[in-house]
Amino acid sequence: AQTVTQSQPEMSVQEAETVTLSCTYDTSESDYYLFWYKQPPSRQMILVIRQEAYKQQNATENRFSVNFQKAAKSFSLKISDSQLGDAAMYFCAYRTRDDKIIFGKGTRLHILP
Amino acid sequence: AAGVIQSPRHLIKEKRETATLKCYPIPRHDTVYWYQQGPGQDPQFLISFYEKMQSDKGSIPDRFSAQQFSDYHSELNMSSLELGDSALYFCASSSIKDMNTEAFFGQGTRLTVV
Questions:
Q1: Do A44 and B108 touch (CB under 8 A)?
Q2: Which pLDDT does position A97 carry in this prediction?
Q3: For residue range B61-75, what is the model confidence (pLDDT) as tens digits?
Q4: By percentage, how much of chain B surpasses pLDDT 70?
């Protein structure tokens, strides 16, 4: 069974600084998708970025980028130039071959002004 | 752009009552997922539907049932409600046919059982 592990329950970063959120996963599948979702205090789930496992190039969306290490089964999220609006819970997620999405436990990110 | 619509946004029920949550996916999305997120918890997968057929089942109690209708909207029916059912219930939709692999989430229904 696939699992997703986020080892950092909480993190803090100074505004305008860069922070990296860690995520590791376990799977026997060779083709899959990985995602980072943001959940602000409103509790809505917002897609931040996605990565196709067959692509070696790391995905980037504006200030958000990932470091995808397929062999190590690692999928970290880097947030550059952190802004107050980035404060949220961040969930790493894996999409299985039968289209179920498995979430990690989440990392709560605090932005310090 | 149209998003996933969930109704109601908030629901308060008493123990042993029944609740029905509705989800309207993004147009042309063929897959619907239901998740339950307890306070301070990560979302837990309940059940999913692809083309109106149940495609996968997670940790959904027997007291819960769900279905996807011909217009692709889905309903989660919860009976004999318990205090522990109080949670945020998310619906998400995606399109496998279009290779659109993101799941877009609705805003959730906050269920409080008293």
A1: yes
A2: 72
A3: 999 999 999 999 999
A4: 95
Residue A40's pLDDT band (cuts 50, 70, 90): confident
Residues 6 or more apart in contact with residue B45 via CB below 8 angstroms: A100, A101, A102, B33, B34, B35, B56, B58, B59
**Domains, chain B, with CATH or none:** 5-113 (2.60.40.10)
CA atoms within 13 A on the CB side of B51: 2
pLDDT surpasses 60 at B100: no
The residue of chain A with its CA nearest to that of B47 is: A100
Residue ranges of chain A whose CB lies within 8 Å of a chain B CB: 33, 35, 37, 42-47, 50, 52, 91, 95, 98-106
Looking up residue A47, the CATH number of its domain turns out to be: 2.60.40.10
Q: Which amino acid type is present at position B57?
A: K
Amino acid at A11: M
Cis check: omega of the bond before B8, within 30 degrees of 0: yes
**Total number of residues shown for chain B:** 114
Q: How far apart are CA B5 and CA A107, in angstroms?
A: 26
Q: Which domain holds residue A59?
A: 3-112
More reliable by pLDDT, B73 or B94: B73
